[in-house]
Structures are given as C-alpha cells and as structure tokens.
Specification:
This protein is α/β, with parallel strands linked by helices. Helix content is 37%, strand content 17%. It has twelve helices and 13 strands.
Length: 334
C-alpha cells in the first residue's frame, strides 16, 4: 500500500464545496505564494506554436544563472520542484538512509518512503549520522521559517562528502534571503544539490517551474529522466524575461504585505511563532476551531495534522483583504 497523499494548501474548490460560496470569492491564505503576481513579459508567438528548442532552454538557464548567481553551474529548469522531488529516490546510495530536517514539506518523506528508503525525521543537523546517504534541508523552512547559515550547511556537506553522501537544500522560499543561498556553491562542490522555486516569489505558481542546481552530471541525469520538452516554451520565456528584470519592487511589495499580515495577526492577539517573507506561522490552542471559523467566513488558511495548534497564514493581496481578515478574526474569541 502506497503512502497517503499529503494535504496541501490551495484547496479552494473543496473548501467552497464544504462551506459554500464561489471559489473566486474566497480569500486564499493557505499557500506561500506571492499574492501580487508580477506582470508577464511579452511572449513571442513561436513559444506557443513550436516545441521549446535548445536556444529557448539555454536562454532560461543563462538567466537563472545570473539571477541565482550560480557561477559554477547552469540551473536546470524543471516542471516544478515537485517533479524533481519525484526523482530523488535515485540519488540515495544503496543501503543508506535519508535524514529530513523536520517538520517540513511533507512530500520529501512521502516520496522517499514510497520508494522503499528508510527515512529519519531529525530535529537538528547534529542528528545526522554516517548511515545517512542523503540529507534534506528546507532553508528557510516551511512552515516554521527556521534558517540555517550557509557556513553551517557547507560544513555538513563536507562531512557527508567524506562518506559519499549528499546534501539537498531546498530554497523554495529563498528569493527574499539571497545572502543565505548556497546557489553560488552548487556545481562547484561534490554532493550538493539546490532546489529553487520560480512561482512562489513571482506569484506564478501555475507555470509549474523550478530549477535544480548542482554538478553537471547530476543535472544531466535529472534532464534525462524528465525527458525532452519537460518545461513549456511559454514558461521558459517568462522566466527568462522576469529573471533578467529588476526584482527590487517585487521584494518591496512582498515585505509590505508581510508587515500588513503580521500587524493584523498581532492585533487579533495571535502568537506568530515563525514564518518566512511569504507566510506567517501562528500557534493557538484552538487552532482547529479557528480554522473552521475562518472557513465559514470564506477564508482558507493552512492547518497541520502533525501539530493541531498550528495555522499558517499566507500573505493578503491588499488592504481590503487585510480588513476582511481582521474582521473575521475579531469575530472569533481568541
């Protein structure tokens, strides 16, 4: 019997079926995606008409190299980092276990266990053992925002390398913290893989686009297993244009929305215990009741089965949404 599917954020249709209202009228705060998607660059007609050729792929890879400052490798575009996660079982050395810094994004453990690998949920990097052939660190972490400095992760990579192990650092929420990224080291160090998400920061999750950074041979293996034309021409074109642009206004807008969200949560008396620039994690003894109360107001947030006191709030898109959330929280006796 396979692993049970993970319940992710973004299930607006299902929430509307249960609690009423049209999905488009709900306020979706259940994901960690920029709620203010950036304007799309021009897309030439050939991107829609033709299969994505080598020049289009190479242009996206060069743009990603400059954006991530990955001077030692050309990042490989993939159809969302979830697609890359599905290929991870092939990277685990035979007879070795996997360590995942936890709690974190649940698909890592699900995919690796489903492939038959022994998986250990660890709370600190100090719990990594020699038997671990792959260590997964989401940095900054989802959902608590825990952030390890690059030098600590590089020391772990060196230790793993002595026994033929590998370190995977998922920087899906790393665009707002470029100084903490290991992208500059990817491709230049053995046993280091970095995952990056495109859609979260740019607010374009529907593109299903991510990047894998690492040694050339490892990237070639990912590309071979994904097959030809894994990423669409329009997605490659959009990424090329946006990554070459000025991202400072995007960061400023996200920071503004984050400050507004936290102000609403604090005014409501909720304890913000963690998060990243794209979401806030709240602890409340009646989190389940609060979740249902917000659903009745057609506001969706993210609960966690492994900690029933936690709720994750994604960013609100504007001041009107701030006021709507504030009214809904005020109606709940926190």
């Amino acid at each position: 019997m396979g692993e049970a599917p993970i319940q992710h954020g973004g299930g607006i249709s299902a929430a509307a079926e249960r609690h009423g209202g049209r999905p488009e009228d709900w306020l979706d705060l259940s994901t960690g995606i920029n709620p203010c998607p950036v304007p799309l660059p021009a897309i030439d007609p050939a991107a829609w008409h033709r299969l994505p050729d080598r020049s289009r792929l190479d242009a996206a890879r060069r743009a990603a190299m400059r954006y991530y400052r990955s001077e030692n490798c050309l990042p490989l575009p993939v159809p969302g980092t979830q697609a890359a996660i599905q290929l991870l079982p092939r990277l685990v050395p035979p007879g070795r276990r996997v360590a995942i810094l936890s709690p974190t994004y649940g698909e890592y453990a699900r995919v690796l266990r489903a492939a038959g690998h022994g998986v250990d949920a660890i709370a600190t990097l100090g719990e990594v053992r020699d038997e671990h052939g792959l260590v997964v660190v989401v940095n900054p972490n989802n959902p608590d925002g825990r952030l390890y400095p690059p030098e600590e992760l590089l020391r772990l990579r060196e230790r793993l390398g002595r026994s033929g192990g590998m370190l995977l650092v998922d920087e899906a929420f790393g665009d707002m913290e470029p100084g903490t990224s290991l992208a500059a080291h990817a491709g230049g160090l053995d046993g280091l893989v970095v995952f990056r998400s495109f859609g979260k920061f740019f607010g374009l999750a529907g593109l299903r686009l991510g990047f894998v950074l690492g040694e050339e041979g490892l990237l070639a293996g990912f590309a071979e297993r994904l097959g030809p034309w894994a990423v669409s021409g329009p997605a490659l074109t959009i990424a090329t244009g946006l990554m070459a642009g000025d991202c400072a206004p995007i960061r400023e807008r996200i920071a503004e929305r984050k400050a507004a969200l936290d102000a609403v949560l604090q005014q409501a008396g909720l304890a913000v215990i963690g998060g990243t620039a794209l979401f806030s994690l709240v602890s409340h003894p009646r989190a389940g009741t609060l979740f249902e109360a917000l659903c009745r107001q057609h506001i969706l947030v993210r609960p966690f089965a492994y900690d029933p006191t936690w709720l994750r709030f994604g960013l609100t898109p504007d001041a009107a949404a701030d006021r709507r959330l504030a009214r809904a929280l005020a109606a709940f006796d926190t």
